[in-house]
């Protein structure tokens, strides 16, 4: 049995791990969009296209999808386009959210293609441009990919091939998200592997805590927070209320919150709803500016049984998790742009969370020079994104070829981060015995985070830690 790391290796995005059995059965664990790929040439030094995948998709028998986020699911339509004919396994909630996210990505790709076609710089024979267009899947490709999905219940042990079984274990992080337990029977032995996907945190709004995983031979662990802890102290309600008061009550300002439409926005809206139900929310207009976020809230409502006890009891008492007084969903782009002309204090929640595309870019452009505006970043922002630049104290941003001074107040909180921090990661690893665990692989993190996490684990008695390079294989 061989395990090859084709994504999220010494980087955060693009999760993609290939498990090949001795009987030639091949399983791909996640098939995510790689942000780093967008910044690198698609051709080698000889001008040859390197291909979307470093393997033959038609030879993959199955995919196990841990959760819906695009950095784990975003290359599935391309996998099917390139010849994959197998089955994609995930939970029912993951299917519903992946459906929304992939169609949203396809819409963005359609706009990119139109922009490319209109660009004076577009050269149809330019190899890089030609291959970049080839990788932009559209709605029909999403529809075809969704036809390969088969959903499983949490904790349901499923045989997916000769001598191979999978079990999806709840891990928090996002509705439907799972750690993937894989059992392989070959050569009169049973070997167990666990792929963490993305680990959730404890006491997170809406979601249940991660469940323990059984002991395995090989553990593949994400390391996003491998060298840091969550810093925000207090409850989500206390933190959000404090920012709203300072941004919109103490002064007639605007509060802009970039938030991922799936997961982060729901946690924030639930927190605001709780404040409203307790009579603590100031009477300001709160705009949710993301059609995808509105659709995602309906998926959360559909899967109430997967939410934590607090959320289920709140729903019983209030009949809704996300709708409350003064909350307004903006449907059209015209409505989105119109609120910039409003004079009253307001709050807007819009995607994307890293300020990399989406309607939030317009709101930032219109308000970044306004000293009465506040931008509250509530999640991780990767290097190279505007969100990361603002967190690092950037003084100017470029919009429509103009430099705009950053006069708005920039704040951050990690209270809504869906990732477990160092304490949570260590707890996850400690479900495994250091004496019995044969190998521990660290993925899905920045290099410094992985290196520090490896050192920490060594002090905890885990000496068998590997940080694989992209494309590196291991015989198990």
Automatic annotation (TrEMBL):
Source superkingdom: Bacteria
Residue span(s) of domain Metallo-beta-lactamase: 13-244
Domain Beta-Casp: 265-390
Keyword Chaperone: no
Keyword Protein transport: no
SMART domains referenced in this protein's UniProt entry, alphabetically: Beta-Casp (SM01027), Lactamase_B (SM00849)
Molecular function, one GO term: RNA endonuclease activity
Keywords from the UniProt entry: Exonuclease, Hydrolase, Nuclease
The name this protein goes by in its record: Exonuclease of the beta-lactamase fold involved in RNA processing
Source species taxonomy: Bacteria, Pseudomonadati, Bacteroidota, Cytophagia, Cytophagales
């Amino acid at each position: 049995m061989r395990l090859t790391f084709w994504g999220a290796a010494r980087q955060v995005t693009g999760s993609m791990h290939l498990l090949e059995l001795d009987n030639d059965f091949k399983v791909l664990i996640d098939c995510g969009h790689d942000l780093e790929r967008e910044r690198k040439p698609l051709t080698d030094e000889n001008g040859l296209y390197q291909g979307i995948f470093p393997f033959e998709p038609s030879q993959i028998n199955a995919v196990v999808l841990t959760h819906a986020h695009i950095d784990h699911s975003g290359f599935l339509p391309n996998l099917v386009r390139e010849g994959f004919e197998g089955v994609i396994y995930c939970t029912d909630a993951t299917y519903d959210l992946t459906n929304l996210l992939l169609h949203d990505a396809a819409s963005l790709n359609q706009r990119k293609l139109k922009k490319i076609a209109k660009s004076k710089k577009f050269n149809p024979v330019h190899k890089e441009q030609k291959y970049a267009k080839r990788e932009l899947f559209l709605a029909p490709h999403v529809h075809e990919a969704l036809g390969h999905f088969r959903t499983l219940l949490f904790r349901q042990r499923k045989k997916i091939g000769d001598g191979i079984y999978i079990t999806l274990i709840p891990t928090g992080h996002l509705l439907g998200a799972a750690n993937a337990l894989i059992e392989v029977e070959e050569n009169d032995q049973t070997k167990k592997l666990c792929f963490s996907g993305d680990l959730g945190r404890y006491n997170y709004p809406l979601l249940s805590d991660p469940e323990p995983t059984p002991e395995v031979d090989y553990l593949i662990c994400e390391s996003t927070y491998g060298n840091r802890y969550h810093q925000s102290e207090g409850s989500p309600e206390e933190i959000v209320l404090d920012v709203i008061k300072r941004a919109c009550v103490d002064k007639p300002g605007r509060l802009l919150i970039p938030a991922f439409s799936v997961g982060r926005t729901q946690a924030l809206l639930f927190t605001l709803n709780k404040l409203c139900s307790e009579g603590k929310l100031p009477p300001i207009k709160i705009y949710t500016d993301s059609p995808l976020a509105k659709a995602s809230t309906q998926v959360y409502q559909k899967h109430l049984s997967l939410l934590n006890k607090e959320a289920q009891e709140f729903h019983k008492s209030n009949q809704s998790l996300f709708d409350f007084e003064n909350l307004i969903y903006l449907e059209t782009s015209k409505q989105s742009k119109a609120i910039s002309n409003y004079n009253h204090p307001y709050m807007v929640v819009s995607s994307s969370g890293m300020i990399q595309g989406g309607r939030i870019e317009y709101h930032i452009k219109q308000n970044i020079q306004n000293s009465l505006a506040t931008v509250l970043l509530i999640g991780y922002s990767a290097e190279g994104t505007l969100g990361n630049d603002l967190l690092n104290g950037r003084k100017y941003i470029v919009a429509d070829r103009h430099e705009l001074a950053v006069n708005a107040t920039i704040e951050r909180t990690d209270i809504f981060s869906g990732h477990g921090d160092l304490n949570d990661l260590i707890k996850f690893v400690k479900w495994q015995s250091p004496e019995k665990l044969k190998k521990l692989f660290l993925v899905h993190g920045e290099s410094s985070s992985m290196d520090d996490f490896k050192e920490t684990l060594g002090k905890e008695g885990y000496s068998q830690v590997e940080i694989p390079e992209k494309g590196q294989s291991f015989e198990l």
